[in-house]
Write a structure and sequence with these properties.
Layout (H helix, E strand, L loop, with lengths): L1 H35 L3 H10 L5 H6 L2 E8 L5 E8 H6 L9 E6 L5 E10 L5 E2 L2 E2 L1 E3 L10 E6 L28
């Protein structure tokens, strides 16, 4: 019996080690896909919203800019172009994000980096990805809401759905014309 217990313990340990190795391999694969932007939801977002590569498409659809948002510990979200009509309807539609996010470049152009979905109804999700909850009061002056950033055009080392991206900067934001 002692030999059987010893064999059983070794098999349990081997199984546990295999599970740990598989978990680490999966985490590494997920981190790598986050870096490259290879994520099924990000790919769908890119396909549904590539028209916004040119900021003129966003303004033509009723999006208006709000100031560039930087993180207190580094990184940024960029300049949000927000569609007030979509913000008020509380619908979640992959092809109608409430905000389209651009990084200001040194030459004065804006580069599409991400989109943001926002709703006051929750808990909310898009294609199985849960939104983040923001309580009130908040820096936006909004009531409680749920939001999901999707870094579909610029890889984010902190995650495809993280709020801030350390690779994005507001450094080249232009001062408003007088």
């Amino acid at each position: 019996m002692d030999m059987m217990s010893n064999l059983r313990n070794r098999l349990v340990m081997a199984g546990a080690m295999l599970a740990v190795c598989a978990t680490f391999a999966q985490a590494h694969q997920e981190a790598a896909s986050t870096e490259t932007g290879s994520n099924p939801l990000a790919e769908k977002v890119r396909a549904a919203n590539s028209r916004f590569l040119d900021v003129k498409a966003a303004t033509a659809e009723g999006y208006a800019p709000i100031p560039c948002a930087s993180g207190i510990s580094g990184g940024a979200m960029g300049i949000h172009y927000v569609n007030g009509k979509y913000l008020k309807d509380d619908k979640i539609d992959i092809a109608r994000p409430e905000a389209v996010m651009y990084e200001p470049m040194a030459d004065g152009t804006l580069t599409l980096v991400a989109v943001e979905y926002i709703t006051s109804k929750g808990p909310a999700s898009l294609e199985g990805q849960l939104f983040n909850f923001n309580s009130a009061p908040n820096r936006y002056g909004l009531g409680e809401f749920y939001e999901l950033h999707v870094w579909a055009w610029k890889g984010n080392p902190t995650g495809t759905f993280a709020d801030m991206n350390p690779k994005v900067s507001c450094e080249h934001t232009m001062a408003p014309s007088q």
